[in-house]
Amino acid sequence: xxxxxxxxxxLIKILGDAGYETRIVGGxxxxxxxxxxxxxxxxxxxxxxxKVIEILNTAKIKTVPTGxxxxxxxxxxxxxxxxxxxxxxxxxxDGRHATVSFTDDWHEDAARRDFTMNALSRSADGTxxxxxxxxxxxxxxxxxxxxxxxxxxxxxxxxxxxxxxxYAWLGKVMPDxxxxxxxxxxxxxxxxxxxxxxxxxxxxLLSAPDxxxxxxxxxxxxxxxxxxxxxxxxxxxxxxxxxxxxxxVGKKTNPLLRLTALLHGxxxxxxxxxxxxxxxxxxxxxxxxxxxxxLSGQHExxxxxxxxxxxxxxxxLTEEFLVLNMACGAQFNWxxxxxxxxxxxxxxxxxxxxxILGMGLPPGPRVGEILHAVEEWWVAxxxxxxxxxxxEYAKRMIQN
Length: 400
Fold this sequence. Notes:
By secondary structure, this protein is an alpha+beta fold. Helices cover 52% and strands 10% of the residues.
């Protein structure tokens, strides 16, 4: 049992000793049943949030009121946070937010959750509570809404994307037509959601071992068009995941690389994506690099281009450029290229900006242009030219 699960059991005992039933709920229960390592645990309790804070503070456990309006506090134990939420029922929803009231009815609380496998709860003694057939659904890989799919999505439009994200990760059974129809009908609601929430779900979906089937369903049901109309190149995504599985065994999947595959052949730049999804600076830079891909269009193992790419971007990024290029149709000699990647040792370019300025060239863009041109020549010479040789080459460029 993980440390986080032990912390959860300790909290359950403290609240239980005070007279309040508390259970592990949602993803931690589902993952444990499926044999997936549990890294995060949420608790639900019959105690109201103010009472939870009082009980835990008395027990010298730090609490943070992370969502009092929705009955949620976070207990902090040895630097790890566990959310504890009072049992709730929805009073009103608008597709983004819900107004709730507290209850002591476990069935009522479970009924407001999104999928049957997420409505499971477990007590400290291991008793499993399954009100909607979530155990069978989890084992079968059947992603099923609690109750009516259309109603669940109307309550929170993000559940639409969560449905396809869960299908990408855990789905083994094709969704039924009624559920897909409900998703398709509700797709325009995605425009009501914040850009950050949409991107978080899309990124997690694209991080699945193989998101192709899930993305295909979203394309077929006119859902992708609502948040990424350019993301239609399913064939390149399929190629990419195939190459990843065959060529990049053990490497963590990169959702930005997969997003680039979906955009292949479409007009969509990094600035547009940054605005659409509120991407971070790092994400924007990475997607710009993938869209540019210095190996794009290479159909042979051009060692000079590969060397320069390795020098400029490093081993991991170059490998991703290579796989992306192959997914887009390039007939690269993988064994030859991979052999070079495995032997690669980083080299230090001997020339600096002050060297160019020392030749009498005034500060400005021309300095960078000369420096870049000399670096390309140095790479093409297999990184052999010395500092003095690079100086001479730069002087000739300036004189010409």
